[in-house]
Amino acid sequence: MKYISTRGQCDETTFTEAVATGLAPDGGLYLPKTLPDISGKLASWRGLSYPDLCFEFLKLFATDMLEDKLRAIVKDSYKKFSRKEVAPLSKLDDHLQVLELFHGPTLAFKDFALQLLGNLYEEQISRTGDAINVLGATSGDTGSAAIHGLLGKKGVRIFILYPQGRVSMLQERQMTTTAARNVYPIAIEGTFDDAQAMVKDAFGDAPLKAKYNLSAINSINLARILAQCVYYVWAYNQIDDAARERGVNFIVPTGNFGNVMAGWMASKMGLPVDGFRVATNQNDILCRLFNTGLYEISDVEPSVAPSMDIQVASNFERFLYYNVGQDHAKVREVMAEFKSKGKYQFDDFDRDTFSASRMDDGEINTTIEHVFAKYKYVADPHTACAFKDLDESKTNIVLGTAHPAKFPEVIEKALGRTPTAPSLEAIKHEPIVNYLLPAEGEALAEFLKEHAKGS
Ligand SMILES: *Cc1c(COP(=O)(O)O)cnc(C)c1O
Fold this sequence. Notes:
- The protein has a domain at 84-106 and 223-421: Rossmann fold (3-Layer(aba) Sandwich).
- It contains 19 helices and 15 strands.
- It is α/β, with parallel strands linked by helices.
- The strands form 4 sheets. Strands 3-4-14-9-10-13 form a 6-stranded mixed β-sheet. A 5-stranded parallel β-sheet has the order 8-5-6-7-15, with helices on both faces.
- Helix 11 (258-268) links the parallel strand 9 and strand 10 (275-280).
- The two termini are 30 Å apart.
- Pyridoxal-5'-phosphate binds at residues 108, 110, 141, 219, 253-259, 307-308, 382, 401-402.
């Protein structure tokens, strides 16, 4: 299997290269050159455990890795999940199930991809001998999932910048109480934008980037998308025949379009899905896109579902590539116009498969109440966005993207009770170990000089 860039201006590459590189050298995103057809395999995959299914699926893509190595990596990646099913389904009624993707180490769906990516990095380093330093800024979930994916991995150090006093208490503790010696959580005296600007500057400093072999954590790595395809196949295989025969819709709380993109790719490989719902919060660039064809940037308004507070969806370019008939020149044209004007109007679009909805904070709050009143189910504020305008003639599978205990204040306000999770209780009293830096590029460069692993 070969991998190409959406922009078509760099060479085809292998799975391991595409994963190691992240962003393609021409600025595009990697995709498989052709998609395998999995429709004939679904039935035979039905009895497999989650890690076994993941191995069978990834084997189709990681064709330049030894199978035994891949099998071991996959097995290790899902062993820190607290439920034996890894991704259990919770049935609310005949038409509605929640696929719970929040039983990993940081209680959000990003663990599915980042636990795997951490192991793939470690394998790459053991092969090449080149140490890497992972650098990123976070406003919460991605940083903690990346830290937990990389902690203790040989040859990797991870530096995560976050705005001091502006991430939740639990998110900060997930990042700062790991006691792992290769993890450097850095509180910045500034905002998330300051932290992000510092990271951007460091990557823009070519000598610095080369000297420390700096690598980004972001949602565009190919391995993240492929790891996320697996739980769509898993969910489809777990439900009963009657539920499958009704036709399956996946409802996906969406920010950067990574999660729903993975599901849609699985359907392009032959997973029989009737529809995908893109469920956004008040930062609704994607909801507007699917409803009007206009893709237009706007300011981020902080919401109670902060992991979906995005301005542009970094994975959108992959979807675009397929939607313009795999025409690289057209992808470049659309992305260039979007970059210069801040918007693009599409005239035709895959509206049969996709629908979209949005929820503001007030609706999220009342939805958490209604879902609890009707099903005795506690939905976190991200997952809550999915419970809107569902087609009751179908089997609706809502992707549960975070554990409600990660957002105790929001749940407390809606339900008058505070959800808990053992892994969060355990860290509440652990001491915070972090570093404090002013919001200045030089301070970060100095810090890296002192702590990054030289190559
Ligand atoms: C990241 C995240 C999302 C959004 O996922 P995308 O892949 O960016 O669309 C939704 N919910 C939670 C809890 C998240 O952490």
